[in-house]
Amino acid sequence: MYQVGDRVKFMNDVGGGIITKIVGKNMVHVENEDGFEIPVMTSEIILDEIDQEAVTNSDKKPDVSDFIRRGTQKPKAEERKQKVEEPITIIRGNDEPKFYLAFLPENARNPLDGQTKVYLVNDSNFFILYHFSHFANEQYVTQEAGKLEPNTKLMLGTLSQADIANLPAFGFQLMFYKDKSSRLEKPLRKRIAINPVKFYKSGSFKENDFFSGKAMLYKLNESDMEKAMKELTNKELKKQAREKEPARNSEKVKVELPELLEVDLHIDELIDNTAGLSNKDMLDLQMKTFREKMEEAISSNAVKRVVFIHGLGNGVLKAELRRELSSKYKKYAHQDASFQEYGYGATMVIVRR
């Protein structure tokens, strides 16, 4: 297990540095020989045995705090000058702010098979001062803060399958600027809550301009034009649907259901606000929806299979659903749904062959 102050070497690159921060079980921050702090997976580093031996044989062992102070102290004038001269990538015409939250799985075909890397992507000619946090239990908990250069991306951390099952909302505060500009930009504040079900579906991850593999992207800022186009598109779709809708008569129109009915039982898909609801209230609502959809499928002549997406969580909803299937609906076979599509978070019921 690595500790702050350990000197390490990079396995897939030249050089090494000193660990200045432990981010989680699988990632640390390392200050390299140039004084830059970079996030690194623990699987990509090893202890610098020569350095550790020198420390062991020395008369006085250095205090870990010495390493920490060294990592946070102000650089010398020569070092500051050297960092300023590092090349900055400026892309002609890329002058509008475009910032993304990105999720890059190790295996895009089965995103839950391995770690998923979380990135902040700066697709613009702006510098960013960023603050990244998790929102849970009505509190924002800081995860990372720093500066991101133009047209670069930064790995903020990794997610395991257990992390995805209990996914927090992600909070961002961004202040962006150029070295020379005719205007001052408004700081950006954004909180994104992502349905864990999206990680169960390989279709959520798409080809993109930022990674060689498929990734899931969320834009942190939308221009006024993009918002207007989205609203216009929604209005046009609703208008077209109304125009194509046949004239209503007094007879009840029967809705044809597909052969495969997919039902998402995550509470935030059923109601907009859970304020004032106890865990029992939410479970009762989820089970009520389950029963309604089962009866709907059984009475239909078209539905052959129903997939109930319950997620992993603490397993209470899955256990209650399976219990009722084995008692009230025991004539209908049930099993885990496709792992490739839903991971371990869904149950499929065979209504008819």
From TrEMBL:
Source organism superkingdom: Bacteria
Region described as Disordered: spans on this chain: 56-82
Basic and acidic residues: compositionally biased ranges: 58-82
A Pfam family it matches: Smr
Every Smr domain range: 287-352
Name of the protein in its database record: Smr domain-containing protein
Organism: Mangrovibacterium marinum
